């Protein structure tokens, strides 16, 4: 008795497939071979790439050989996820093929500008930071690592090969308005290495340099766990304003742009909730890099901001004598928030008054209301306004309380006759 085989079994893949190929490989380069098994005797298995292999790869339907049919660039796309079908005329199955594009050193570093210009005071000490040069390389791994060198007359300035920070190596003495021209080179770590050059102009000055100062000396920000890369954390301002702010702390998860916007360059999982991160920030005028103001900014990773602040009293009645001196304390408003950590941290502000020269202010952290302008009973007897309490969560929540301040009259006006003379 002969049993005739029927095609009643589908092909089977033994595993998921992965392959690697270098970018810039020639058309026709072999990538990998796809294979499967079919226990039916007479079945003929053929292969097919779904989505036509994105027009970049093809598969031989009988051998399963995958080859390159188009130019590939790792900087455009570093990995391709393909689906492969195996068919025996009746049955078909699918598997995945992941192709990783390996980097070649085909991109030279590019300086952020062709000409850098910095100023330094002539009495700066050796080691003072003068400025920073920066170049980027689109390649990955060692091919994308950039190193710096600097050539200057008399070697007055040197550059840190990794950070690009330029520092003073020889005292300037009495040089004033003297211009030093240097050539900077950025070279990558590839084999063979590629490089780029830029001009660095450094001027020695004798005048005192004005340094911008951060308006908020102790900024505290909340970062919601799970927020995506690029999330804005907060805004920093300086007086006078400057477009040159930077993160000094060696933590590449954060970046600050020319507008003072502090944002993330990484994701922060929920496992980091409650963690505080301290960043050292600096601000300077771009060409006066060495003269900078520095502060510490604290970032707390938080969970959801569930509760708004609540005032102990929704309506607060206070009084103040007229002619009170500046900074006289009038009273206090108080609010609390049930959230833990920074989500429960409450700040206060006068909410939307339209009185012009408003004579009262509230301390942002304590809720103390105090005098900041002239108070005159004869001009205004009662001030009615709102104070807002906001938490520091993401997004922040707010509550308001009404404040009534009665101005208490003082005997500060002498009697006046309606007429200078009276006839009886």
TrEMBL record:
Major localization class: membrane
Entries under InterPro entries matching the protein: Cadherin-like_dom, Cadherin-like_sf, Cadherin_CS
Keywords: Calcium, Cell adhesion, Glycoprotein, Membrane, Repeat, Transmembrane, Transmembrane helix
Organism (species): Parascaris univalens
GO biological process: axon guidance; establishment or maintenance of cell polarity; homophilic cell adhesion via plasma membrane adhesion molecules
Chain ranges of the Cadherin domain: 13-111, 112-214, 312-417
PANTHER family noted in UniProt: FAT ATYPICAL CADHERIN-RELATED (PTHR24026), FAT-LIKE CADHERIN-RELATED TUMOR SUPPRESSOR HOMOLOG (PTHR24026:SF125)
Gene Ontology terms: cellular component: plasma membrane
Annotated CDD domains: Cadherin_repeat (cd11304)
Cross-referenced Pfam families: Cadherin
Location in or out of the cell: Membrane
Molecular function, one GO term: calcium ion binding
Protein name (record): Cadherin domain-containing protein
